[in-house]
Amino acid sequence: MIHKLTMPIKENDIKSINIKDTVFLSGKIYTGRDAAHRRLIELLNACKELPFDIKNQAMYYTGPCPAKGDMPIGSCGPTTSYRMDAFTPQLLDAGLKVMIGKGNRNKEVVESMKQNNAIYLAATGGAGALLANCVVNSKVIAFDDLLSEAIRELEIVDMPLICAIDSRGNSLYR
């Protein structure tokens, strides 16, 4: 099945998505890799506000290349997601609903996804330049000292993704 979704995502949209479904995602999403995730967890543990409202939002695991010419961002392919697994359940508990990356997730993440009604979407590795064409705006919003791993707010239009793990825990990797 094909879904055209806009962020922030709605609970019913999440429940309607099954593994193998194609998702064309639009709206604002946030980037972050393991260093940024570690800092987000430190903020949560200190009861401090996150740099963006995480409720019903998406995190794209990418460290984009610098923009060239009039492009808003350079190549932005997915990072291997298991590097974020230690941080993910706490972010899901805080309201994160969509994760975008590549590769399998551990059992704790899948269980937390089921408890929090969240999905994991796979982006095609090696297609970073193609995915960058879906980005219409990009700005660093936190942790600029992390350079390419800083948290960015991306505005995307019809980013092509595949549901790799649905909110019921069904997985393409099993």
Present the secondary structure layout.
Elements: E1 2-6, H1 11-16, E2 22-31, H2 34-45, E3 58-60, H3 88-93, E4 98-101, H4 107-116, E5 119-122, H5 128-132, E6 135-142, E7 151-165
Parallel strand pairs: 1-2, 2-3, 3-4, 4-5
Antiparallel strand pairs: 2-7, 5-7, 6-7
Features:
single chain, about 170 residues, alpha/beta, fumarase, five-stranded mixed β-barrel, 5 helices, 7 strands
Q: What is the class in the CATH system?
A: Alpha Beta
For the biggest sheet, the summary is: 5 strands, mixed, barrel
Strand order, sheet with most strands: 2-3-4-5-7
Class by alpha and beta content: alpha/beta
Percent range for helical residues? 10-25%
Number of helices: 5
Number of domains: 1
The overall strand count is 7
Going by CATH, the homologous superfamily would be Fe-S hydro-lyase, tartrate dehydratase beta-type, catalytic domain
Kindly report the average pLDDT value.
96
Unreliable stretches covering 5 or more consecutive residues: none
CATH architecture annotation name? Alpha-Beta Barrel
Taken from the alpha-carbon principal axes, the silhouette is globular
